[in-house]
Amino acid sequence: MLRRLYDRTLALAAHRHALWWLAFISFIESSVFPIPPDILLIPMVIAAPHRAWLIALVCTVSSVLGGMLGYALGMFAYDLIEPLLEFYGYDEKFESFRHTYNEWGAWAVLIAGVTPFPYKVITILSGATALNIWVFTLASIVARGLRFFIVAGLLWKFGAPIRTFIEQRLGLVFTVSLALLVGGFVLVKVL
Q1: Spatial separation of the C-alpha atoms in residues 177 and 91, rounded to whole Å
Q2: Per-residue pLDDT of the chain (191 residues; tens, 9 = 90+)
């Protein structure tokens, strides 16, 4: 079953509309969708290594634009929950948190943008705390660009051996990928 899914994903990655799907997934992942765009980015670069840089660029731009949607959601969602914070007496605590987050927010965006930590959490939180939009955007461009261009570059350079490794150890790769995805969500709950 895993082998069929892998083969199907590679076939879809070579499809003529794959870049549009990658852009869509990268966009919505940055604000609401739980599956990272790497699920499509990796097979796309493996299927078409000569397009690695274009694929990484599309993924980066779409992800940053989606992050801006997440920022807007956080900004408007805060307006909805602010009365509840005041009602329960948490408005001062949130203001303290906002100050700390805005002091270190660029680092939070950079770390979440590069690691398996769910980037959407940081995009929404950045809007809710009114992190400077230019700081947020620049940190997002750097972080998402690093993440997607490094992945694309490694696959471009070492694609054939990586593809062989993945195909020979598909179960292991799937398990580790799933563990990283779940681990990112668990980390969010812990923090």
Answers
A1: 39
A2: 556 765 666 667 677 888 998 999 899 989 888 778 887 888 888 888 899 999 999 999 999 999 999 999 999 988 887 777 777 777 788 888 888 888 888 888 988 888 777 888 889 889 999 999 999 999 999 999 998 998 899 889 887 677 677 656 656 666 776 676 667 656 655 55
For residue 36, the SS3 value is coil
Which residues, other chains included, contact 119 with Cβ-Cβ below 8 Å and sequence gap of 6+? 29, 30, 63, 67, 70, 112, 113, 143, 144
- Residues 55, 19 contacting (CB under 8 angstroms): yes
Do residues 5 and 13 lie in contact, with contact meaning Cβ atoms separated by under 8 Å? no
Cα–Cα distances in angstroms (integers) from residue 134 to residues 83, 123, 124, 158, in the given order: 27, 13, 15, 35
**Token pair recorded at residue 190:** 């812990």
CA angle 143, 111, 49 (to 5 degrees): 40
* Spatial CB neighbours of 17, under 8 Å, sequence gap ≥ 6: none
In the block, residue with structure tokens 């076939």: 11
Domain ranges of the chain: 2-190
Q: Measuring CA to CA, which residue among 170, 105, 108, 123 is closest to residue 26?
A: 123
